[in-house]
Amino acid sequence: MSILELTEEFDIHLNHNCGGVCACSTCHIYLLKGEAFVEGITDKEEDFIDRAINPKLESRLACQCIILKDQVEIEVEIPDQRRIIGHEH
Ligand code: FES
User: Fold this and answer.
1) What is the predicted pLDDT for the residue at 76?
2) What angle (nearest 5°) sits at the alpha carbon of residue 32, between those of residues 17 and 51?
């Protein structure tokens, strides 16, 4: 399961305009803790992160963060999404 899928399961709003296929940057998050427990970043993901609003070292795309283990602690911050066009997706 990805962090994006987790937000949906718990009814936490997070944009995902491309539907979770690493073709936009609207599911941009900051992964503050637990990097070792999610799939590593790919070149394609890095390219789209560069297009996100205010990218940082801890930036990831939530749809690409597949959680690799159960019972681990992962901490995520969702940046302000109001500047994203179509932010109600
Ligand atoms: S939803 Fe588009 S890259 Fe994650």
Assistant:
1) 97
2) 35
Task: List all residues whose CB is within 6 A of at least one atom of ligand 1.
Answer: 16-18, 20, 22-24, 26-27, 48, 61, 63
Exposure on the CB side of residue 17, measured as CA atoms within 13 A: 13
Buried b (16+ CB within 10 A) or exposed e, 39-78: eebeeebeebbeebeebeeebbbbbbbebeeeeeebebeb
Three-state DSSP state, 4:
helix
Each residue of 45-76: pLDDT tens digit?
A: 999 999 999 999 999 999 999 999 999 999 99
Tell me which of 38, 41, 42, 63 to substitute to probe ligand 1's pocket, judged by most ligand atoms within 8 Å of the beta carbon: 63
